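Why show two proteins at once? Because comparison is the fastest way to build intuition. When a single record is shown, students tend to memorize it. When two are placed side by side, the eye starts asking what differs. So, the first record is below.
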Amino acid sequence: MKVVFFGTPQFAVPFVRHLNADREIKLEAVVTQPDKPVGRKREMTPPPVKEFAQKMGIPVFQPEKVKNNKEFIQTIKDLKPEFIVVVAYGAILPKEILEIPKCDCINVHASLLPRYRGASPIQSALLKGDKETGVSFMSMDEKLDAGDIYLLKKVTIADDDNQESLFEKLSDIGATLLPSVLRDIKDQILTSIPQYESLVTYCKKISKDDAQIYPEKETAINIENKLRAFTPWPGIYMIFKGKRLKLIDVKELETEEKLKAGEFSPIKNKLLLGTKSGILEIKKIQPEGKKPMSAKEFINGFLS
């Protein structure tokens, strides 16, 4: 079974690994985004998918654009794939690509579609405090995450899951299932059904601007969920005495104590923060220009 894979970030790497390891699948090529400058030194850095594919000896293509790129489109046609698989590629593919594979063009998305179409499904599930999410395998069309669904695999969100752990969980589950999903589609064991348009929700790309919290406007549970969603990146912070204060470990606290929103209070050896509704216990914190510190260290150094 000949497959061409489109994908870019670390999330997509396990999918390449499982496709490449399957004896019934011939991974003809990997298509990923161009290398990009990263960090303060702006060093050109390859996408994780490229790095892994090159280690495995898989041909890699990095077109600047796919749409109207006749030479690239012809290159993919010449590979005669039965499937094209797309996992977090980073661009919507044109009709000319979607029509190439003999069987279908399959997209894997980290949510239970039609919920959370878009760029941040994992973060969005955590932000909403969802108890369940999953992986969707769909037939691709020219719209964003709107294709007919072959399979939804539900996954429980643990209370201690954050962006990083849920990212790994969904990536591993999706990658493990992918080869058998392709076989079942080819053998017509799996058939696709349309998404319920009435249930569609969208999620935006997360940026550094989303990291700031406002205890006067947000509830304790919302701030806790935001930390889970934004760990490890971009993290969360608030402004305290005119400077950034990064919150590293927080938990909504069930207590009878009353605190003014935005106000810190050391109570019974705990550092508490009042919010619009509810109280947060701050366990680890990092003042601007300082190393991360415990609640006790912060109380002694900044509140006493």
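Second record. Ask yourself what differs from the first in the token line.
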Amino acid sequence: MTTVAKAFIGLFWLPRFVCAVFPEEPGPLNFIPTEVVRRYPVFLGRPHHSSFRQEPLHIQRILQVNRTLYIGARDDLFRVELDNVVGEEMFYSKKRTWESNKNDIRICRMKGKHEDECRNYMKVLLSRQGGLFICGTNAFNPLCANYTGDTLEMVGETVSGMARCPYEPKHANVALLQ
């Protein structure tokens, strides 16, 4: 058999072999028609109709406590009162910004991480004794803190998020608090 014939046979069988090795991506678990979704209000990270938000939210966690939604995003924590939702959009009643400090960002960038990764993504958001326990990636140096549920003020000092929160913003996680 000539080299050309062997190459042709290889090219013919290779795609079939590769398809057999890599499984197909599973389809969606659930599908909801667009006309149904349009009936529900959306959250765009704005305090009211006339404001404008330029950056994407990068929502990481959502926690519902009674009729209040807490939304953990990149550098921001939002409080949304569900009883105040009117129309097609939900607006936040309180917003707390928790950004990484410049030194943590500098060290993160020195490690070769992208600028977007060197932010504080809220990955743990739990209800705790009337308040919140929140952990963020903090530019690959995770930190956790307790916050009040009503004013979103930090209570006490931050604690290390090691073994409590992922370092990587893209990593999935589950958190339980006893």
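One difference worth noting in the second protein: The chain has a mean pLDDT of 87.
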